[in-house]
Design a protein that fits this description.
- The protein is 20% helix and 33% strand.
- By secondary structure, the protein is an alpha+beta fold.
- The longest helix is centred in the first third of the chain and has 24 residues, at 20-43.
Length: 210
């Protein structure tokens, strides 16, 4: 059976915070090694296939501020302390007919420095995949589905922060943050216009802290 006909699913691996890229690199190495092993198996006549297909550290684009107070974009992990691994795991733990079971690849991943294990399962259990709906929710946050990426506000602002509007029709006005509209990349600022308190919505790139 070809690899394309295999049922590949996404699994969540918990890591130490800050180890996501290191673990990703190690899993990529496992994937490369497995591809070599599979080719050798096929030459020996075994109906072998790749169990580990890909690995992902989901990130999204956020809007923050530089040290000088200027808006900057950077990537932020959607799931700090977690990574996604795409695998096609056999039901058999130890494998049959010379082929690997699910224990072998999962054990190799668990032994990587910085890995705590698979989410939702014990070390002796076959890992459970996430649903397509759960995976699509992650892709929505990273901007990998439904069009262009969305930049999210990095939470550098708090309610009642004093800010100055630098661009747009309300440029030079100062006020306080009344509401953070993260889904719109906007802030609602309470400013004084003609002596009256007036709430205005501005893009996060149009303000700076005072």
């Amino acid at each position: 059976m070809s690899e394309k006909k295999r049922n590949y699913e996404w699994y969540v691996v918990q890591t130490y915070t800050g180890y996501e890229q290191k673990v990703e690199k190690e899993i990529l190495s496992l994937i490369a090694d497995e591809k070599i092993d599979v080719e050798k198996d096929k030459q020996s006549g075994l109906d072998s296939y790749v169990l580990l297909r890909s690995v992902k550290v989901p990130v999204r684009e956020v809007m923050g501020l530089s040290k000088s107070g200027k808006p900057v974009k950077r990537n932020e992990k959607v799931l700090p302390g977690y990574i996604l691994v795409e695998m096609s795991l056999p039901q058999e733990a130890d494998g049959v007919g010379g082929l690997k079971g699910w224990k072998d690849p999962c054990s190799k991943i668990r032994k990587i420095q910085g890995v705590n294990g698979f989410v939702g399962t014990k070390p002796t259990e076959r890992p459970k995949p996430i649903s397509d709906a759960e995976y699509n929710k992650i892709l929505l946050q990273t901007g990998e589905v439904k069009g262009d990426k969305v930049s999210f506000i990095q939470q550098d602002y708090d309610i009642n922060d004093k800010v100055k509007i630098t661009e747009g029709p309300f440029a030079t006005f100062s006020g306080t943050v009344e509401e953070i509209l993260a889904d719109k990349n906007k802030l609602r600022i309470n400013v004084q216009i003609f002596g009256r308190a007036t709430p205005v919505e501005v893009d996060v790139t149009q303000v700076e802290k005072i």
